[in-house]
Amino acid sequence: MAKRIISSLLILTLLFLLGGCSAGAEYKDQVIYGMDTYITLRVSADGISDDRFDELCEKSSMIIAENEKLMSAYDESSQLYAFNNGADMILSPDASLLSTLRTAENISSLTDGAYLHTIGALSLLWNVTGGGPVPDDAEIEAALKHISADSLAISDEKITKSDSECKIDLGGVAKGYTAQELVEYLAGEGVSYGLVSMGGNIGVFGEKDDSEPFKVGICDPADTSKVAGYLNIRSGFIAVSGSYERFFTENGETYHHILDAKTGRPADSDIVSVAVWCQSGAVADALSTALFVMGEEKAMELYRSGSVSFEAVFITEDGEIVLTDGIADGDFELESESYTLRNPS
Amino acid sequence: MNRLKNKFCLGDLVAAALVLLLGFSVFAVSYFGKSEGDVCVLRTPDTRTVLPLSEDTEFDITSNGIDLHIVVENGKARVESSDCPDKICVHRGEISKSGQSAVCVPARLSLVIESEGESDADFIIG
To answer: Is B25 helix (H, G, I), strand (E, B) or coil?
Structure first.
């Protein structure tokens, strides 16, 4: 009997020891600035010299710079800037720009404009990251006349628009697209495992030394020093949209950066943060914006329709965390006691 | 052989007790305590500074032409103020868990929590 008791205790101890080893990976890190955000490259330290890591970071910086040049609405030398400011068309558009635009167009259509790549006139008007000010109703009404996705025509040969004041804004999709390009580059270079984080987007690749999934913490929107919960994933991309970081305050009111194209104002839904997990970086990025705007009920309708494949973690304004049905037991760990898990409505 | 299989001596019990003690210690530190080795790494284009989270400090810093005020207090770090236009770094609030970061893009300044032991996560986003 004594032997059984002691053996059981030793096994229990071993389980505790294993439980204490959470992330269990050795990484090399680099922070790169670009596309109006910061990018973290975190790759397996195993078998990668400092010189090799520098090479990978240098090439990654070039990929980021190229995409910024292609997709920035603010870089005066970009094709997109010229298109948004008077040019009639983009001839022979770059493949990356085309791919990003087509993903944006598709998600915009599937979400009935909750995510909208032609929202440029409205986002420029609000200038949330520049600190406002709040536009008046007439200005908002005027901008809403120039955000229709139907005014854009996209083909392999050219991109044209029927409304000269329509402006493309790829801010809600380009980072996810670039995160995916970086993940594909690093995996293709033989890096055994790692992740790329880029302004609320993260992509993972490879298999960790301990064969455990990647443990990705989702920030608690009510207290950013804490984590609301962890998603454990082996592949794919997670994009988080929340109202708590990019905002400005005027006359005591807070105005965040996720705009609702139907009202012309910051989205007012029952969600304070949403994390979307899927196998495409660009889709995850665009969908996270869309689901935030749509709110839980419409977001779940989209999920159940099966028209686009994704999983999501919603943090609601009522302090609840809602998981889509495809997130299995063990894929999500609730960390904060401030929240309760609830089944989707 | 049967004696070895079926009986424990005092040494076995002591060894078992030590393993148990070690196991529960690791568990307790991992689950209930903040590692003493947790630090906040502050990077600018020209500098890398390690700030232990166990030591309260605050200071002004200029990076890429932007003035910021950094605070480490009660095991948490934050950008208290910044001259940057978007204030995203200030809105980020406090960070304390390994993998969390607060970054001022215009200033090219980052605060990243690092742990000398096992991290809670591979990365924290949002």
So the answer is: helix
